[in-house]
Amino acid sequence: MQSPNSFEAYWEANRKRLLEEDEEYKKALDGYKLHSGADWLLFAFPVVVAIVVLDWAPFKGEFLNWILGAVAAILTFVACVAFKTHMSGNRSLSNIEADVKRREEEKFGH
Questions:
Q1: Can you tell me the distance from the alpha carbon of 95 to that of 9, in angstroms, rounded to the nearest whole number?
Q2: What is the pLDDT of residues 74-96, one digit of tens each?
Q3: What is the pLDDT of residues 24-40, one digit of tens each?
């Protein structure tokens, strides 16, 4: 039996290739691409939120308002990506990668 360090070296050297060969991973990765007008609207929504926040501008300092707008845009973007992923029915890339790594580790050890 080989040491865990040898598998980790194998995984680091071959991770990209192994993930690209996995159909579920490719399908989930493809789900992040913009395929329709609805996808474009979903990803344009954070910009609209940032503009609304900047227009609302609760702080007296302009810099703080820009920071708040940027945080609002980032959080909205993360929420939109999570929503699109949830609606597509795909598992997260990190979960799929963990499964691929576990399968490869089992094959590597045998």
A1: 20
A2: 999 999 888 887 887 778 888 99
A3: 999 888 877 777 887 88
pTM of the model: 0.64
Q: Where are the alpha helices (DSSP H) in the chain?
A: 4-21, 23-30, 37-56, 62-88, 93-109
**Concatenated DSSP letters for 7-19?**
HHHHHHHHHHHHH
**CA 57/CA 21 separation, integer angstroms:** 48
Q: What are all long-range contacts of 19-27, with beta carbons under 8 Å and residues at least 24 apart?
A: 19/97, 19/100, 22/96, 22/100, 24/90, 24/91, 24/96, 25/93, 25/96, 25/97, 25/100, 27/90
User: Two tokens at 29?
Assistant: 């990765």
